[in-house]
Design brief:
Elements (H helix, E strand, L loop, with lengths): L4 E4 L10 H15 L3 E3 L2 H8 L13 E5 L14 E5 L7 H9 L6 E3 L2 H9 L6 E3 L19 E4 L6 H13 L5 E4 L13 E3 L3 E4 L4 H9 L1 E7 L17 H7 L3 E5 L7 H5 L12 H12 L5 H9 L3 H13 L2
Parallel strand pairs: 1-2, 1-3, 3-4, 4-5, 5-6, 7-8, 7-11, 11-12
Antiparallel strand pairs: 8-9, 9-10
């Protein structure tokens, strides 16, 4: 199979903070495969919105697209010409049967998480599956070398609640440490657009773009990272790595991490988390790790070598190999 286009949902209404990451992947894939990125035709959008699914609106070219939830799926895209890549998969029981129906005619269904790929394989998924793991756009190569370190700790994005509790204790016990986080108070601020502050005093403003996000993260010496799957709710038990881990490495930060180390730690093993941090579970381990991280420079050469395996250009090669087998 040889892809001829990538269908994107950019420029649509209701875009969330994660969408620009997907656009970066799409652009890198398009360049690597020498194919265009196209938006859905107006006719497709109109007809699909009416829940009418005539076969003539389905793609006739071999098409790649990202699907941002395991429960999503446009019926016309369930055809032999479309290769979906599923992000944020949290389906169980009857949800699995519905997922199989939504993709019953796709020749190949890709998963962004090694955990999800193994999860579906163990459940005898009837679909042809492939792993298209999270990556980082090649545009961030060398980023850490271009940005000066200004702060001891910089926290961006969603925080692991246990690590964040340890962080709160640590900065109270170490008042000389400089830290940047959303909101003035030490109580974690989950609002994605809230202003960032230095030690709860000096406002740095909001983060309105990917470039601003990456630049701020690069200014920190240390940050925290936890996988999904620990909290009650639909994500519980799905121990997903998120692309933020690769962003942290590209930003040249020491990382203090929390992740499963046993059979559930498939993503952690794939991305070699233990090369950067043990899985921290106690405050005593956190304090020792933070003290060590603040006085130790990262191994820039090792970081760069690691990222070579996880840039999107590397995933293009993986995708070509998968498609050649269809």
């Amino acid at each position: 199979m040889e892809l001829q286009q990538i269908i994107t949902r950019r420029n649509g209404a209701g875009q969330n903070y994660a969408q620009p990451i997907i656009y970066e992947w799409e652009d890198e894939l398009a360049a690597g495969l020498d194919i265009p990125v196209v938006t859905l035709p107006a006719l497709y959008k109109a007809v699909n919105r009416l829940r009418i699914h005539p076969p003539f609106i389905a793609p006739r070219k071999d098409t790649f697209r990202f699907v941002t939830n395991g429960r999503d799926g446009d019926e016309p895209m369930n055809n032999r010409h479309t290769v979906p890549c599923i992000i944020d998969f949290f389906e169980r029981d009857e949800g699995l049967a519905a997922f199989y129906r939504r993709h019953s005619r796709n020749r190949l269904v890709l998963l962004s998480s090694p955990f999800d790929y193994q999860y579906l394989k163990e459940r005898k998924c009837p679909l042809e599956l492939g792993l298209f793991a999270y990556s980082l756009s090649d545009r961030y190569a060398g980023l850490a070398e271009r940005v000066e370190k200004k702060y001891d700790i910089v926290l961006t994005g969603r925080q692991d609640p246990l690590l964040y509790a340890f962080f709160q204790t640590y900065v109270r016990r170490h008042p000389d440490v400089t830290y940047v986080k959303r909101g003035k108070d030490l109580d974690n601020d989950a609002a994605k657009t809230a202003a960032y502050y230095v030690n709860g005093r000096d406002c740095l403003g909001t983060i309105a773009s990917r470039d601003e996000f990456m630049r701020l993260q690069s200014q920190g010496r240390v940050t925290l990272y936890g996988v999904q799957g620990y909290l009650d709710g639909p994500t519980k038990g799905f121990y997903h790595m998120t692309p933020h881990f690769l962003e942290i490495i590209a930003c040249g930060c020491q990382v203090i991490a929390r992740y499963p180390t046993g059979a559930d730690g498939i993503d952690a093993q794939y991305y070699e988390f233990d090369r950067f941090s043990p899985s921290v579970q106690t405050y005593e381990a956190f304090e020792a790790a933070m003290d060590r991280a603040l006085r130790t420079a990262v191994d820039a050469r090792a970081y760069a070598a690691y990222l070579q395996k996880h840039y999107t250009s590397s995933r293009v090669r993986d995708l070509k190999k998968l498609l050649s087998q269809l």
